[in-house]
Design brief:
Blueprint: E1 5-9, H1 14-25, E2 29-34, E3 44-46, H2 54-57, E4 65-68, H3 79-99, E5 104-110, E6 120-123, H4 138-151, E7 157-162, E8 164-166, H5 174-182, E9 195-200, H6 201-211, E10 220-222, E11 226-229, H7 230-240, H8 261-272, E12 274-276, H9 279-284, H10 294-302
Parallel strand pairs: 1-2, 1-4, 2-3, 4-5, 5-7, 6-12, 7-10, 8-9
Antiparallel strand pairs: 9-11
């Protein structure tokens, strides 16, 4: 039987590294791309999505599956810069997938493609439309436009709209929340009882390991693992770092522009939450089960060597 060849773009990043490592350990022939560090092995290519030719860098390899994780998350960047990486870069990888008759292009999108309707409860894939031209944030607009490119590409695809991602290697969510809690910069509306959807990276890896063995679904899916109240999520971080969690009420003296991205997310989530149904993907893939609980994923994130707070905690992780 032919060994499946799988390309994971952005394998030096949080999600890409975890996915490649997981699939590699399952015996797949995995390839990756890096820009921020030297390659880890001969099947990881140095690749700048904005400059390099796919055919040249990838040695004209015919990949059975391409998992596209490269994305620029900096909402402080100009939209032109975000578009170049997130939209035009995605189109470049799709063009290569089309040339090589890739059987499944798996695109890691984001629930932020809904614009302001990212906020709310019980969102599903059918009643909520993506908003590629609606200004919620520059990042969300670029991800929505990239998803449109995938949907109209004509290649076999599966789009995964990711919620907040946590777990080992996370440098965007749990470490940033720790900074907010320590600096008393968690601003809140209400009591924080609105549900938010989250997903540990280990569970994403398990889901993808199932999807690569299936035909492309040619549609988009919500893929959260857990739906919990915002205050429970924040209190877990607070208890693990043994720092009391203080809710600060926003006032007219708080400048939205001076809040960092995570502070803005928490303030918005406290208002309406960000809850997305995952029933569609669960029905299609009854064999898919979560590998790790959300609270253990937070522990993994805070035990990372690359986290920014001073003393990483050491807490035993329990199985789900």
């Amino acid at each position: 039987m032919k060994l499946m060849k799988i390309l994971i773009t952005g394998s030096s990043g949080f999600l890409g590294y975890a996915i490649r490592k997981f699939l590699d350990e399952k015996g797949y022939e995995t390839y990756g791309t890096t820009r921020s560090r030297p390659p880890l092995d001969k099947r990881e290519f140095v690749f700048d999505i904005n400059k390099d030719s796919c055919a040249t860098v990838f040695n004209d390899i015919d990949f059975d599956v391409i998992i596209h994780t490269i994305g620029l998350l900096d909402d402080n960047a100009r939209f032109k810069t975000l578009k170049q990486t997130n939209v035009d870069g995605t189109r470049k990888i799709i063009d290569y997938a089309k040339q090589k008759n890739c059987k499944n292009f798996i695109y890691l999108s984001s629930v932020s493609v809904y614009g302001f309707r990212t906020l709310g409860q019980n969102r599903d894939e059918y009643s909520t439309k993506i908003r590629p031209h609606f200004l919620f944030s520059k990042y969300s607009r670029s991800k929505a436009q990239a998803e449109v490119v995938v949907l109209k590409s004509g290649i076999p695809f599966t789009v995964l709209r990711l919620p907040l991602m946590i777990g080992k290697g996370d440098c965007m969510v749990s470490p940033k929340l720790v900074e907010l809690i320590k600096n008393k910069q968690v601003f809140y509306f209400g009591k924080g009882k609105k549900l938010i959807s989250i997903m540990p990276v280990d569970n994403l890896c398990e889901l993808i390991s199932i999807l690569i063995e299936k035909p492309a679904y040619n549609q988009s899916f919500h893929v959260p693992s857990y739906h919990i109240p915002l205050d429970l999520f924040l209190n877990k971080h607070s208890s693990l770092i043994q720092t009391p969690f203080q809710k600060m009420k926003p006032s007219i003296f708080i400048s939205w522009g001076k809040l960092n991205n995570m502070a803005k997310i928490i303030l918005a989530f406290s208002w309406r939450g960000a809850h997305f149904q995952d029933s569609l993907i669960r029905k299609l893939l009854p064999e898919y089960h979560d590998l790790i609980s959300w609270d253990n994923a937070i522990i993994q994130a805070l035990n990372n060597k690359n986290t920014r707070f001073n003393t990483p905690i050491s807490v035993k992780i329990q199985p789900v």
